[in-house]
Specification:
With 286 residues, the chain is α/β, with parallel strands linked by helices. 45% of the residues lie in helices and 11% in strands. A six-stranded mixed β-sheet has the order 1-6-5-2-4-3, with helices on both faces.
């Protein structure tokens, strides 16, 4: 069964509000002129915005622990989705395409999935989205995981680029822990940005994003890997073509790695993407 949103008990709600106010007080002290709204919902949005725009700076352990507790409580409230209980494409869509018994199509918030790894469509700075409350996947994942994820990305890149200047190449993949997400790993990959019409190079780079994540899943012995729709949002890769590349790349990789039994979740968020993947995975229009 898919995880369902849970209603907090009064005790847990009071605990959540206490954690929120305590954590928010610390980050507001860094920006003393920022007004604090009265409603719980607006205070929670403000906390997310402050964390979205905050550079990588030390956070006292007691503040970080309180923030972790808040994020984990919110994760349980949203409801964790157990990927083992999701129907595969073969049974759900009646697909006869290769490997669809190890493919899942799921529409929803990727931060709810307990897949062993989820894929983040990162930017070349590899530090998450700094736009407050932005709805891109990079922002959503970092907001749910908490600032330990930004710190981990920073430390990972700084170890390779000690001068502090880097731009992550397009098509690669790197792994961090999931922190307050229900997944074990987050795989960060930078997709191609489409300026006008799609070029062969951009198609090749998007293919590389999927292949690099699959190779990383194999390296880390992941049992399940959830892909978001890489490059189709702010990076403007056409949705249908991106989906065809995703499905064909995964299928070809599975053909080439019969010893790897990783399950693949194609995670979509919009109904348009759901319809595109449903047609592709059921074999319609191929």
């Amino acid at each position: 069964m898919e995880g369902k949103k849970k209603v907090l008990t009064r005790e847990k709600e009071e605990r959540r509000n206490m954690l929120l106010d305590g954590v928010l007080a610390f980050f507001l002290a860094e920006r003393p002129k920022t007004p604090c709204p009265s409603s719980v919902e607006e205070r929670r949005k403000l906390l997310r915005a402050l964390l979205n725009t905050r550079e990588v700076l030390p956070i006292p352990e007691e503040v970080q622990n309180a923030l972790d507790e808040l994020l984990q409580l919110e994760s349980r409230e949203k409801g964790v989705v157990c990927t083992e209980n999701l129907p595969n494409v073969r049974s759900a869509l009646g697909s006869v395409l290769p490997h669809t018994d190890r493919m899942i199509l799921w529409k929803g918030d990727i931060t709810r999935l307990n897949a062993e790894a989820i894929v983040n469509a990162a930017n070349s700075a590899m530090l998450g989205c700094f736009l407050p409350l932005h709805n891109c996947i990079d922002n959503v994942i970092h907001s749910a995981a908490g600032p330990r994820l930004r710190q981990a990305c920073h430390d990972m890149m700084l170890a390779e680029y000690p001068d502090g200047t880097w731009r992550e190449p397009v098509g690669h993949a790197r792994a961090t822990a999931g922190f307050n997400l229900p997944c074990r790993y987050v795989f960060h990959t930078v997709g191609p940005v489409v300026q006008a019409s799609v070029t062969e190079r951009e198609r090749s780079l998007l293919t590389s994003c999927y292949t690099s994540c699959l190779n990383l899943a194999f390296e880390k012995s992941c049992r399940s890997l959830a892909f978001c729709c890489i490059s189709t949002g702010e990076f403007r890769f056409p949705k249908e073509e991106a989906a065809r590349i995703a499905v064909s790349t995964v299928t070809r990789w599975m053909d080439e790695h019969p010893e790897c039994k990783v399950k693949i979740i194609f995670n979509v968020f919009t109904e348009q993407d759901n319809e595109i993947y449903t047609k592709l995975l059921s074999g319609v229009g191929r």
